[in-house]
Amino acid sequence: MSDHRAAGEEHGHKAPNYMLIWLYLFILTIAEVGIAFLSTFPKWVIVVGLLGMAVWKALLVALYYMHLKFEPRRLRLVALVPLPAAAIMILAIMMEYI
Amino acid sequence: MAHAQAAIMDRPPERGLDVYTQKVGMWVFLCSEVMFFAGLIGSYIVLRFGASDTWAAPGEVLNVPVTAVNTFILICSSVTMVKAFAAAEADDQKGIKRYLLLTTLLGAMFLGVQAFEYTELVLHGEWQGSHGFTPAAGLYGATFFTMTGFHGFHVFLGVVCLAWATIQAYRGRWGKDHHHGIEVLGLYWHFVDLVWIILFTIVYLI
Q1: Domain assignment of residue B24, yes or no
Q2: Where are the domains of chain A?
Q3: What is the ipTM of this complex?
């Protein structure tokens, strides 16, 4: 592990603690299933909570496992490009019901 | 010999984005993949809003505990993938082989569990009084199999590429000066994991 950390430092950043990220993902997955089946909150609270945790997990994967947190700013911009485009597309489809 | 050594070394980052070309190419490809899955998810949301009475409650038809275990398997495969990359950066040949092999096996295990899930649904699933939950089971069945099926196809392609990368690892291809291939493959694999995180929540839990 120490060898791997040293290797990460060669790329200009300290290698993240990958096992800690894995633990976060594991705990969040268990929490999601627990909230979906065991909680007594109103439906909309459950939906918002589950979506929030899904986005949190996705961010952990993108930032630490895909190393976006450590990439040059211009590459991060490339990665962000489809997000507003996807949001516009989904909203445009949903306009059918507005 | 020196020429052969130079030929298998990774190219340095290009000017401009300050990133090597293959990584930029993979990110641009992943951008197109985001739009592909956004189309599927957007359609799913609209169809579900429009016909919510034809959707089952979470766990009523789908086997959530089995899929939660499958989600865990995919998360584990992401950590082994990133460990393979870290091992390559550190020129740890044993680590590269071990983690690439583990990632391939975990990816194959995910596909096996998904195949089991599909088989159980088609043969023993119950939905709106009919026996068997298939892609023909209304909008619910069609959207479920379309979204998880396309994701499964992406996992399958990833497992094929991982198997190739593992074979290459046992031939000594990857190392400190030649690991861009593992990083680019890792980007694809983590993206597949990321998409599943979203799909698991939207399709199985909400």
Answers
A1: yes
A2: 2-66, 72-98
A3: 0.88
**Residue spans of alpha helices (H) in chain A:** 2-10, 18-38, 43-60, 73-80, 82-94
The answer to whether position B95 is within a domain reads: yes
What's residue A39's pLDDT?
Answer: 78
CB spacing of A22 vs B46 below 8 angstroms: no
Nearest to residue B82, comparing CAs of A68, A79, A43, A97? A68
CA angle B15/B19/B21 to nearest 5° reads 90
Q: What is the pTM of this model?
A: 0.89
User: Nearest-CA neighbor of B77 among B29, B109, B50?
Assistant: B109
Q: What is the DSSP letter of A1?
A: -
Q: Quote helix, strand, coil % in chain B, to nearest 5.
A: 75, 5, 20
Residue range of the domain that includes B82: 10-52+62-205
For B48-78, what is each residue's pLDDT tens digit?
Answer: 888 877 888 888 899 999 999 999 999 999 9
Q: Which two tokens stand for residue B190?
A: 């983590």
CATH at residue B73: 1.20.120.80
Domain-embedded: residue B33 = yes
Nearest to A66 among B38, B187, B205 (CB): B187
Are A50 and B86 an interchain contact pair (Cβ–Cβ within 8 Å)?
no
DSSP H or E run through B159: helix B138-170
